[in-house]
């Protein structure tokens, strides 16, 4: 529930910030409309008015739908964390891409309208360097320039090779990180952990937090109908509606290593000198087989 609230509030906050920063650039300010220099009289031009009315309508629906979607996607946390992460990543990518596409696309169309209507050549005011929405001026030695669309920000000069490298590398690294996280959570959700014994060594393989210990160190092994009814504090692991996996500290059992699917029984409890292991399988007979393996001399 805590994770749900954190993501729910954070996602809505992100959507509102994007709406305020990139969806609110609709007024005539500093001689510009949507980052394009036009005379003040052009704002009352019928073509411009119709264009801006359509832009406002599309913006309103885009951001309102994203605010709703940002909260709705969080309900997937009550199912599989990996599915939530995939859908959340796709939502975030489309929010960022959509916000820039709508603003930059409108900027380019207004710039083309300006040139067509003869409201200046676009050279003296630098509009030609912003006609794609981003700054592109190979003759400018600056790598960072003030952003026309957000006065508090700076943007890269895409006319410079270094600017392209920095921006594309940042996008590539971000996408790579999202893919890596999604693959990792998919493995956690859908690749089951296993217990094996070989040469007196007990190994628990898991996508996260694999452990091993000597069979001789097992003080006691028993099958429980369910996890003990105690308070568990996660120190390094994962806890969602489907599973508990990683390092925990129980109010009664103390340091624990847990590999348990919720709502599946029985649970194998393994007492060791330094910590207690709880593990089960989605198949009851598999958990029972692990118990007999530990009990065998």
UniProtKB/TrEMBL annotation:
The chain crosses the membrane at residues 6-24, 61-79, 85-104, 165-186. It comes from the Bacteria. Keywords: Membrane, Transmembrane, Transmembrane helix. This is PH domain-containing protein. It comes from Hespellia stercorisuis DSM 15480.
């Amino acid at each position: 529930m805590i994770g749900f609230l954190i993501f729910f509030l954070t996602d809505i906050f992100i959507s509102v910030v994007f709406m305020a920063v990139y969806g609110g650039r609709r007024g005539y300010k500093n001689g510009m409309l949507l980052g394009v220099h036009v005379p003040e009289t052009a704002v009352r031009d019928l073509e411009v008015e119709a264009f801006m009315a359509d832009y406002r309508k599309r913006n309103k629906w885009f951001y309102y739908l994203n605010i709703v979607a940002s909260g709705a996607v969080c309900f997937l946390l009550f199912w599989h964390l990996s599915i939530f992460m995939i859908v959340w990543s796709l939502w975030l990518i489309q929010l960022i891409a959509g916000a820039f596409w709508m603003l930059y696309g409108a900027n380019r169309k207004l710039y083309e309208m300006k040139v067509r209507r003869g409201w200046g050549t676009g050279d003296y005011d630098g509009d030609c360097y912003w006609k794609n929405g981003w700054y592109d001026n190979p003759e400018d030695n600056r790598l960072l320039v003030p952003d026309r669309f957000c006065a508090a920000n700076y943007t890269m000069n895409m006319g410079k090779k270094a600017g392209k490298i920095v921006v594309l590398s940042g996008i590539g690294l971000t996408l790579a990180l999202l893919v890596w996280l999604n693959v990792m959570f998919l493995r956690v959700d859908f690749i089951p952990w296993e217990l094996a014994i070989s040469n007196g060594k007990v190994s628990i393989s898991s996508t996260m937090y694999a452990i091993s210990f000597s069979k001789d160190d097992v003080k006691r092994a028993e099958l429980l109908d369910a996890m003990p009814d105690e308070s568990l504090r996660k120190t390094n692991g994962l806890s969602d509606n489907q599973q508990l996996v990683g390092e925990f500290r129980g109010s009664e059992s103390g340091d624990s290593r847990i590999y348990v699917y919720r709502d599946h029984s029985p649970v194998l409890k393994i007492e060791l000198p330094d910590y207690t292991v709880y593990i089960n399988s989605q198949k009851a007979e598999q958990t029972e087989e692990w118990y007999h393996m530990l009990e065998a001399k």
